[in-house]
Amino acid sequence: MKRGNVEVICGEGLGKPSLALGKGLSALMEHKRVIMIQFLKGCSPKDEQEILERLEPDFKVFRFEEEKAEELINIRNGFNFARKVAATGECDVLILDEVLGIIDQNIITLEDVEKLLEAKEEDLNLVMTGKVFPEKLKPYVDAISRIEYIQDLQD
Known about the structure:
Distance between the termini: 51 Å
Low-confidence stretches: none
Largest sheet: 6 strands, parallel
Order of helices and strands: EHEHEHEHHEE
Strand content: 15-25%
């Protein structure tokens, strides 16, 4: 069986979640099961949620938002859910959208992510997004894509 990989999509530019979603859709077209866990997203447009719901049951999306202090517990619970999914092989592709952001905001630790990476099913493909990539995670990662903001062309 092919070994799964770990990919990071990071940088200041826009489109990291869209690129991760595209990777999930590609996997879905290969008849793979995909779970996308989004952190720090807030409320999304109803149309967006409805479109993503149409992809179920093979493409599931879970959101863990930060709105109030008690929501930090919700985000940590979401990360624990991600750790369970990664370790149990519940899907073929796991997308952790803005997981690097919750490290950057000290909601979870770098060590928490290292433990998830060490415990993940060997054949699981994992995609992580966020602005800042901690170099300490480099030994766990197979590919890094950086999206940069170059210029606002409307000036």
